[in-house]
Amino acid sequence: MERAELDRALLQAHEDKDSAALVRLYTLAGDQAEDAGNIDAACFYLTHAFVFALEAGMPEAKALNRRLVARDRAHPLEL
Predict the structure, then answer these.
(1) Confidence of residue 79 (pLDDT cuts 50, 70, 90)
(2) How far is CA 68 from the centre of its chain?
(3) Cα(4)–Cα(68) distance, rounded to whole angstroms?
(4) What would the pLDDT profile of 40-72 be if each residue is shown by its tens digit?
(5) Using CA atoms, how far apart are residues 16 and 22, in angstroms rounded to an integer?
(6) What is the enclosing helix (H) or strand (E) of 8?
(7) How far is CA 75 from CA 58, 61, 63, 64, in A?
């Protein structure tokens, strides 16, 4: 997904209050930033994905926490 399309999809997911889409899209944005070598941006997006996953009680929260821990951006949590 191209950046402009991703940004539009994120805005729509926020407007729709669609937690599952927010987790998926912020994770995708984090993956793209990581692939581009921008670890700070990747962690920014992954943190958003993590928070939305936690709020929604989604199982993706575990994997997102592990990714952030691996980058020294979070403490490991028991989820």
Answers:
(1) confident
(2) 10
(3) 25
(4) 999 999 999 999 999 999 999 999 999 999 999
(5) 10
(6) helix 3-16
(7) 18, 13, 13, 12
